[in-house]
Write a structure and sequence with these properties.
With 258 residues, the protein is of the alpha/beta class. It folds into two domains: 160 residues, Ribosomal protein L4/L1 (Ribosomal Protein L4, Chain: A), CATH 3.40.1370.10; 41 residues, no CATH class. The protein has eight helices and six strands. Helix 3 crosses helix 4 and helix 5 packs across helix 6. The longest helix is centred in the first third of the chain and has 23 residues. It is flat, with a radius of gyration of 33 Å. It starts with a helix and ends in an 8-residue tail after the last helix.
């Protein structure tokens, strides 16, 4: 038969276990409910006035910002820009005599062979660069997530603008500079306060001609956006059609291989 001390210990253990179970039940954290708030932004006209609003896709402009993925995207982008065509000649490729320049012993000088050794002027290069491939692979899903992270970070920093009516502008630099001044993006002396990335679509040749001579302004299309170009600029100026094109291009269904 168990003694009274063992009974007391067993009863204490039961109370401790029951109390711990109660504490666990009390400290259960319920999953956070995602906010269903829509992302809307004002659409400005060429006169700098807000004329309407447009809804931005939450998957693109409201995604979680993954800083590690953005750093990886920038490194891969810069690596893929390297051509890797630089090449230097070794001592075996340099034109010149292979005759031993002087005898091995008895001169008091160091022993040398060919005059095209790397130690001599006009000689070959030791351990120099040779053509190589610097390109790195980047999976499509990671590339898309990096793009969404860059767009979301810019949106959170209030760096996204949407403008409509660009197709009506004449192909004149002065006309587009006036539009930027009315949007408070350019100083009166035609010097941009911030780096601007103008995102357009096909069919805006007049905008391309009007904006390509403005300092601090870069043009691109919605289908050619990448994380690096977005992070290089402070303001993303979307045309109204570019937002729709970006949404359709990002969520297009991949064709099945037959």
């Amino acid at each position: 038969m168990p003694s009274n001390k063992l009974k007391a210990q067993n009863s204490k253990r039961k109370t401790i276990v029951q109390s711990s179970k109660i504490q666990k039940k009390d400290t259960i954290i319920e999953p956070k409910v995602k906010s269903t708030k829509k992302l809307t932004i004002e659409v400005f006209d060429t006169k700098g006035k807000a004329v309407s609003t447009i809804e931005l896709p939450k998957e693109i402009f409201g995604a979680n910002v993954n800083k590690a993925l953005l750093a990886q995207a920038v490194r891969i982008y810069l690596s893929n820009q390297r051509r890797g065509t630089v090449s230097v000649k070794t001592r075996g490729e340099v034109t010149g005599s292979t005759r031993k320049i002087y005898r091995q012993k008895g001169t008091g000088r160091a022993r040398h062979g060919g005059i095209r050794a790397p130690i001599f002027v006009h000689g070959g290069v030791a351990h120099g660069p040779k053509p190589r491939d610097y390109s790195l692979a980047f999976p499509k899903k990671m590339k898309k997530r990096a793009l969404f992270s860059a767009l979301s970070a810019t949106y959170q920093n209030n760096g996204v603008r949407v403008i409509g009516g660009l197709e009506k502008l004449p192909p004149k630099t002065k006309a587009f500079a006036n539009v930027l001044e009315k949007l408070l993006l350019v100083e009166p002396k035609k010097k941009t306060k911030k780096n601007i990335l103008l995102v357009g679509t096909k069919g805006l040749e007049n905008v391309d001609k009007a904006a390509r001579n403005i300092a601090g302004l870069t043009l691109t299309q919605a289908t050619q956006l990448n994380a690096y170009s977005i992070l290089q600029h402070d303001i993303l100026l979307f045309s109204k059609e570019a937002v729709k094109t970006l949404t359709e291009f990002s969520f297009r269904k991949e064709k099945e291989n037959v």
